[in-house]
Design brief:
The complex is a heterodimer of chains A (507) and B (641). Helices cover 71% and strands 3% of the residues of chain A. With 507 residues, chain A is mostly helical. Chain A has one domain. The C terminus of chain A is likely disordered. In chain A, a hairpin with a 4-residue loop joins β1 and β2. With 641 residues, chain B is an all-alpha fold. Helix content of chain B is 74%, strand content 2%. In chain B, strands 1-2 form a two-stranded antiparallel ribbon. In chain B, α3 runs antiparallel to α10, α3 packs parallel to α15 and α15 packs across α21. The chains are: A mainly alpha (507), B mainly alpha (641). Chains A and B meet through β1, α5, α6, α11 and α13 of A and α5, α6, α25 and α27 of B.
């Protein structure tokens, strides 16, 4: 299918880079930074190979590597990519160099910091490309550790509290998932074969509905914390706010997507009957999240916390799309995972840029910044507009498809969900007004440095992508669609399919 | 009166149609990125792109006129847009009589206002940025009117909203401007929220968002679905076109530079709702009367309501803003009685005279160092004759004096209402004509006639060349623009008929009687204003005139407290609820349970309590070690075979 194993290269380059960096003396901070940048950029280039050899139009896994690992336990090293994971992998590798660049301002413990970031990258990529449940679980937990230290050691004020909260929440969720995985593993034994962790063999496992529901809930516990769904979200504002900028970006852009990704890959694919049965409840939670997250975001006075709560709302749209049971919803939800990663990632980077200049995140400490940092203000506005779903920018394409699908399947439920876009405009534009508009009232805001070259390098590609997806989403959607269609079919086929899900059967 | 849109015959060959949108868009992008380096030439560049877009529009217009009537509609596919499964949309342009009339208005008036802005914005430190936004606006507006499907129309719709936001808040240092910009965006978002759902309903019922297919299938919709969809779309229109209940953003939008008020908040963007309703007239028709009745009643009510507030306002721009709301109300009144082509006719003449009036007001402000208070003005026609006389043309046009442009279109609206049997709407319309004549005469007389009231007035300079270039053509159009719909000539109504159907008009004596009434009422309004503002003893007469209506006048002066009511009823409770969610529900509620549980666990395991923070760290370190160990083991296995 492809000449080079680009996927595995992408997966392990950061880890190898991290190991090499262990050898660099910690005083050579400039070299450490540069090494991290080179490694992550190389990783991105390698992932472009994955993208280039990706064949759109086919639903199954591509670029599969299968190595025997511990055959007696049914564990293999199996990786692959499909329309669900492709953009998550690309998002991760794309954002990581930007995170390295934004971390140029990190001055303490530079060496472990960058090593942890690189380790984190391999962990995240592993989550998205593992096709073996054991491998997946290892990567899933492996992500937790570097992130815990990133928050706990390089974070702001209440970092220890935030890190612990993050850790305990996610760990508590994962335990249930582990039990579910083990159940699946032993259930796969039966007839002819030995038990296996191979995702592809596990997918078709016939399970009684009660068992499905239980196992689904086991996975769901883990993913719903990660996404997060209300009311399991309270770790998020603390973790996002206290984390260093790169940590916040990775948390919002990628770690939350691990939850959404898990819901698709495992929740729906393993347990379609349970997923269908519970869909209305999950959709209700998603809609509550859209409104609840947005309402709370409105009254935040810390910019970073505001962005954090906006994630709760935005991920509500994602989950909504995944569970409405149509191809438009699923594709829109998956596209929205990418979009949220870009927009919210960019927002955290920008808040970081503000923090670097003023060492505060309090909205009331700003005001009139459009005068002193016009370029930053302009980029910030574009990102804000993308986040509030302005047509022509990336956020709209996903949200629109999700809402359209919600109407198709659930009729007037779409009203509260759509109201989320009004609330998004309120919290974002109000905050923007208070930070950037009006006269400069605090002296410290008067003479700030506008974008530096490093920041242009970070934001030009980001904005370009934000516009590109908004104007011409086709290359993105057409790679998602076949896989989305297959999952929707799994979701709908298993037993009774409500007639209203007409769109799912589209040609 | 049925719309017959959608029956595309062979179509005609479009001429470089993408350039109509592409040129101003390219101008905007170039100016956004390189504006600082381009500097003073930004204005010229922006005028060039919109001017060339106007030429491209004209070429297509000519091509269309050259085609036989049945093939005067064509679509051009550019590229695919959001498409998944059965939902397919493209960036497709629709060129037909309606869209090209709109293109001519937007590019024509748009070019004039671009040129005017060169003079008006001269010396502004963010001069290039202004033209970037203006160009961006033009491209979105053109996208809106040329879109072949509802989704693309919505892209333009929100895009012009964005530009409106950017331009209202152009002088963002002023807190009032920043607040007005945000208010405009948010109020419009509420309308757009309904618009979006309307789109879902239409797609759900019809399976397509293409204008042609929607209108073709509209007739087969059940009345309930059609009414729902039509009213949702119309709710969107009440936002963009500033109708009750969402009109409140437009008066505040006057914080923007005056050319913006002329272009966006008078001539073009705010008419998008009118265009949209006319465009989807078959959907409104399919509702079996309900939707159109709502449109007509809201239109008439808005026309009257805004005119009342215009009568007591002292800010020259705000008077014009209320007047715009009121005139848009007339257009919706026309739509409500099924006179779609007449609504578009009034849209066109209104673009001429209201664009002109705003530009004239801008010239006055320019001459008086930004003063907008009419009480400080007077007698300005003599020091600034170009502005004075062109403004006079605009005043007579909006007032509805024969033969000025506004007379023909407004008269046609009132006549259509009468012929449709909507005597109440007709009555409201006629009464509003009286108010219109009154408040516009009050404005004109206070500003341009009578004695000079301030020292600045004596040396007020007339419009500089770039401004005059815009004022004079618009003045001419305000005088003679009515010819586009004079019977016997090339009539606009006839031209639009293939798209929006025929509008009813009275015949014979009735036509003359109705016109006569409208005219007499207009003249009465002018005389009233003259007698209480200009003639000798005006002060005393004014006091006598106002006294019996004191509560009404006082209410109008406070904008009938609508902003305050919205604040109390919606904004404040909303904010309180958000605070409740954040502080009580989230922090003390959900997070309280979380922390409480943690504390509880901590207490029960006394031994761990004193090393609580270190606990996780140790755990994590152990975990990390475990992961490393497992990994090493596994990797070794692979390496070993």
């Amino acid at each position: 299918m492809n000449d080079l194993p680009f996927l595995d290269l992408t997966l392990f380059l950061p880890l190898v880079g991290a190991l090499v960096m262990v050898l660099i003396p910690k005083r050579w901070e400039a070299l450490l930074r540069l090494a991290a940048l080179v490694v992550t950029t190389a990783t991105f280039v390698a992932s472009l190979g994955v993208l280039a050899s990706f064949e759109s139009g086919t639903p199954g896994f591509q670029q599969v590597t299968e190595l025997s690992w511990i055959p007696e336990w049914g564990i293999g090293y199996i990786t692959g990519v499909d329309g669900v994971s492709l953009w998550m992998i690309m998002l991760t590798t794309f954002l990581m160099p930007l995170c390295i660049l934004t971390s140029w301002t990190i001055k303490t413990q530079v060496k472990p910091y960058f090593i942890l970031l690189l380790t984190l990258e391999t962990g995240m990529l592993g989550v998205f490309s593992s096709l073996d449940m054991f491998l997946f679980y290892v990567f899933w937990e492996a992500v937790l550790v570097p992130m815990y230290f990133l928050i706990g050691m390089w974070g702001h004020g209440r970092r220890v509290y935030a890190a612990m909260k993050f850790f305990l929440f996610t760990l508590a969720g994962s335990l249930f998932m582990l039990l579910s995985i083990l159940y699946l593993y032993f259930a796969s034994q039966g007839s002819a074969a030995a038990p296996t962790f191979d995702y592809r063999s596990l997918v078709g496992t016939p399970l009684a509905l009660e068992v499905q529901i239980l196992l689904f809930l086991g996975f769901f516990a883990s993913f719903a914390v990660k996404v997060p769904l209300v009311p399991l979200h309270t770790w998020l504002p603390d973790a996002h706010t206290e984390a260093p900028t790169a940590g916040s970006v990775m948390l919002a852009a990628v770690l939350l997507k691990m939850g959404a990704y898990g819901l698709i890959r495992f929740g729906i694919a393993f347990f379609p009957d349970a997923a269908r049965l519970l869909a209305p409840a999950i959709i209700a939670l998603a809609i509550v999240g859209i409104l609840y997250g947005a309402l709370i975001a409105i009254v935040q006075h810390d910019v970073k916390r505001l962005v954090a709560y906006s994630s709760v709302a935005h991920l509500g749209f994602v989950v909504l799309g995944l569970f409405v049971g149509t191809i438009q919803g699923m594709s829109g939800g998956i596209l929205q995972m990418l979009n949220h990663g870009l927009s919210t990632g960019a927002l955290f980077l920008l808040v970081g840029a503000l923090y670097d200049r003023r060492h505060t995140r309090e909205i009331s400490e700003f005001g009139g910044l459009a005068r002193s940092v016009p370029v930053l203000a302009g980029i910030f506005l574009i990102v804000v507009l993308s986040s509030l779903g302005l047509p022509g920018l990336n956020g709209f394409a996903g949200e629109f498809l999700v809402l359209l699908a919600t109407y198709q399947s659930y009729g007037w439920w779409v009203i509260p969900a759509t109201f989320g876009i009004v609330l998004a405009a309120i919290y974002l534009l109000w905050a923007y007004q208070r930070v950037f508009h009006g006269a400069v009232s605090i002296e410290a805001n008067r003479n700030l440095e506008d974008f530096r070259m490093r920041e242009y390098v970070m934001f030009v590609p980001l904005v370009a992508l934000i516009v590109a997806i908004g104007v011409y989403p086709k290359p993105f959607l057409e790679r998602i669609e076949p896989s989305a269609k297959q999952i929707v079919r799994q979701l709908n086929d298993a037993s009774v399919i409500p007639e209203t899900r007409g769109l799912a059967e589209a040609p | 009166m049925m719309g017959v849109q959608g029956e595309v015959a062979a179509g005609f060959e479009p001429v470089l149609a993408p350039l109509i949108i592409g040129l101003p868009l390219a101008g905007a992008v170039v100016l956004l990125i390189f504006g600082k380096r381009i500097g003073r030439l930004s204005g010229v560049l922006a005028c060039g792109t919109i001017g060339l877009a106007a030429v491209a529009g004209l070429l297509n217009f000519i091509a269309l006129l050259g085609a036989p009537e049945e093939s005067r509609s064509t679509t051009q596919h550019l590229f695919d847009f959001i498409s998944v499964g059965r939902f397919q949309t493209g960036v497709d342009l629709l060129l037909d009589p309606l869209s090209l009339v709109m293109v001519m208005v937007v590019t024509g008036v748009g070019t004039l206002i671009h040129v005017y802005s060169i003079g008006y914005m001269h010396g502004d430190p963010r001069y290039p940025r202004f033209f970037a936004y203006l160009n961006l606006f033009a491209s979105f507006m053109l996208l809106l009117v040329l879109a072949d499907n509802l989704l693309l129309l919505y892209v333009g719709w929100e895009g012009v909203g964005l530009c409106s936001y950017l331009l209202i808040g152009f002088w963002f240092d002023r807190p009032s401007a920043a607040a007005a910009a945000k208010k405009a965006f948010l109020v419009n978002r509420i309308g757009d929220f309904a618009f979006l759902i309307g789109m879902f309903v239409l797609f759900g019922a019809i399976g397509s968002l293409t204008i042609g297919q929607i209108n073709e299938a509209a007739g087969a919709l059940s009345a309930g679905v059609a009414t729902t969809a039509a009213l949702l779309l119309f709710a969107g229109a009440t936002g963009k076109s500033a109708q009750i209940p969402l009109y409140v953003w437009l008066p505040d939008a006057m914080e923007g530079p005056t050319p913006v008020s002329a272009l966006i908040h008078a001539a073009t963007m705010v008419t998008a709702g009118v265009y949209m309703v006319a465009r989807f007239s078959p959907v409104f028709e399919a509702s079996g009367g309900t939707a159109l009745t709502v449109v007509g009643v809201i239109g008439a009510a808005t026309a009257l309501w805004a005119a009342l507030m215009a009568c007591t306002e002292y800010d020259i721009k705000r008077v014009l803003a209320y007047s715009t709301i009121s005139q848009l109300g007339y257009m919706f009144l026309a739509l409500g009685v099924g006179a779609y082509s007449i609504a578009v006719f009034h849209l066109v003449t209104h673009a001429f005279f209201k664009g002109l009036l705003f530009l004239g007001a801008g010239a006055v402000m320019h001459a008086l160092d930004g003063n907008t208070d009419m009480r400080h003005m007077g007698g300005l026609r003599r020091p600034m004759p170009i502005v004075g006389y062109t403004f006079m043309a605009g005043w007579l046009a909006i007032t509805g004096v024969i033969p000025f442009a506004g007379f023909w279109s407004k008269d046609a609206i009132l006549a259509a209402a009468w012929v449709e049997g909507n005597y109440v709407l007709w009555g409201v319309g006629v009464f509003t004509t009286l108010l219109t004549a009154f408040y516009m005469s009050r404005l004109y007389l206070r500003v341009f006639e009578g004695p000079l009231r301030t020292p600045e007035g004596t040396h007020a300079h007339d419009a500089p060349l770039t401004m005059a270039i815009a004022l004079v053509p618009l003045g001419v159009l305000s005088v003679a623009g009515g010819v586009i719909n004079l019977p016997g000539l090339l009539t606009l109504e006839h031209f639009l008929e293939p798209v929006v159907g025929e509008s009813l008009a009275p015949e014979g004596a009735l036509a003359f009687i109705l016109s006569g009434i409208a005219l007499v009422v207009a003249v009465a309004g002018i005389m009233l204003a003259r007698s209480i503002y200009m003639a000798s003893g005006a002060e005393a007469r004014r006091a006598r005139f106002v006294r019996p209506m004191a509560p009404l006048v006082n209410g109008a002066r406070h904008k009938f407290y609508v902003d305050e009511i919205y604040g109390r009823l919606i904004v404040l409770p909303g904010k309180r609820f958000a605070l409740f969610c954040a502080d009580v529900l989230d922090r003390r509620g959900i997070d309280g349970i979380v922390n409480g549980t943690a504390t509880l666990i901590g207490r029960t395991s006394q031994g761990l309590r004193h090393i609580q923070t270190g606990y996780v760290r140790n755990y994590a370190a152990t975990f990390l070690l475990g992961v490393v160990a497992v990994f090493s083991f596994l990797i070794l296995r692979v390496v070993a075979g």
